[in-house]
Design brief:
The protein is of the alpha/beta class and 325 residues long. The chain has 13 helices and ten strands.
């Protein structure tokens, strides 16, 4: 249903790279509910070249995750190419280049979305990386650095150059870098890219928070695929639900409280495999916001899960509200 180089996904949607979220734990849970492809969070190019960091568990994918992609952030073509080759060599099945991140600290270092000001630099990075790997290569863009005509022209220049260089997919978030996540994403611009480059694989991103929106965007935009980002945080069921709707089946009933509790505990245990207890509890709190949304007593559940200070307190809160643990 969706081809990215030599990867053939059976549905045209998958889990997006999310900085600070899509580690092995989230990837395993997403895969278990039907995500055909998952990613790392955003990885700084230099980390792949740092021997100590590269030995850490979070860095290397495991066999049960395949296919899994690595998304790289950087600005120097040679360093990006070396990082891409390193990630491919340790087992990642796809490399994605991030030219979209709007975080101020990233922009200050002239990485991510900043590079949409410099189309020639983007194309040079693509060329270097393409020559360093044999696995599929995709890129992530926004619709421009800002809303100026100059910025829009540069966006189209990048799209044209990326297509000419033979990237295996272009993922576009329907906002400018300056807009960050304000207002609604503009999917008409994304559809126009597909019309201009009908033979390129164009993937849409932005405001995909439920299964119904996944299917609506696929059917109305004319794009080849959709990535699910924030909508999958604490909500792996979105992949199962979107699969059913895409295949013409009724949307499954929501997970029982028991199932929700079991997934919360499994997710935490996967996090705890690679992080000490105190760090794992703190890190896991941001996922509990998403998980608690499906509970009829959302606010109280969220408060109890967030206030857990150790494993025992977290398991006690899950036992109290979900009946498992």
């Amino acid at each position: 249903m969706l081809k990215l180089g030599n990867l053939n996904l059976d549905v045209p949607f998958y889990q997006a790279p999310l900085s600070g979220y899509t580690d092995r734990a989230m990837r395993v849970i997403a895969r278990s509910y039907g995500a055909p492809l998952t990613y790392t969070g955003v990885l700084l190019d230099m980390i792949a070249l740092h021997e100590k960091a590269s030995r850490k568990l979070f860095f290397r994918p495991r066999a049960d995750e395949s296919p899994v992609g690595a998304q790289i952030l950087g600005a120097d073509p040679e360093t990006m190419a070396a990082a891409a080759a390193s990630f491919a060599n340790v087992g990642f099945d796809l490399i994605d280049l991030n030219f979209a991140c709007p975080a101020p600290k990233v922009l200050r270092r002239q990485r991510g979305g900043y590079l949409q000001k410099e189309p020639d630099s983007v194309i040079k990075i693509i060329q270097y990386v393409r020559n360093s790997i044999s696995c599929p290569l995709t890129i992530k863009l926004r619709t421009g650095f800002d809303s100026s005509q100059e910025s829009i022209d540069r966006f189209w220049q990048i799209c044209q150059g990326a297509v000419a260089e033979g990237v295996d997919g272009i993922t576009i978030h329907g906002r400018s870098v300056r807009k960050m996540y304000r207002d609604r994403g503009d999917w008409e611009i994304l559809a126009e890219v597909k019309r201009q480059f009908p033979h390129a694989t164009i993937i849409g991103s932005g405001d995909v928070m439920d299964a119904e929106t996944v299917i609506m965007r696929l059917k109305t935009s004319g794009l080849d695929g959709v990535i699910i980002a924030r909508g999958a945080i604490g909500n792996p069921w979105i992949f199962k639900e979107a699969r059913a709707l895409w295949e013409g089946r009724p949307k499954p009933e929501g997970p029982s409280l028991t199932e929700q509790g079991e997934v919360i505990l499994k997710h935490y245990e996967l996090v705890a495999e690679i992080r000490p207890m105190l760090k794992s509890i703190r890190y896991f709190r941001k996922f509990t916001v998403g998980y608690s949304r499906r509970h009829p007593e959302r606010k109280q559940v969220q408060a109890d899960l967030i206030h857990a200070r150790n494993r025992d307190q977290l398991f006690a809160a899950v036992k109290k509200w979900y009946g498992v643990g």
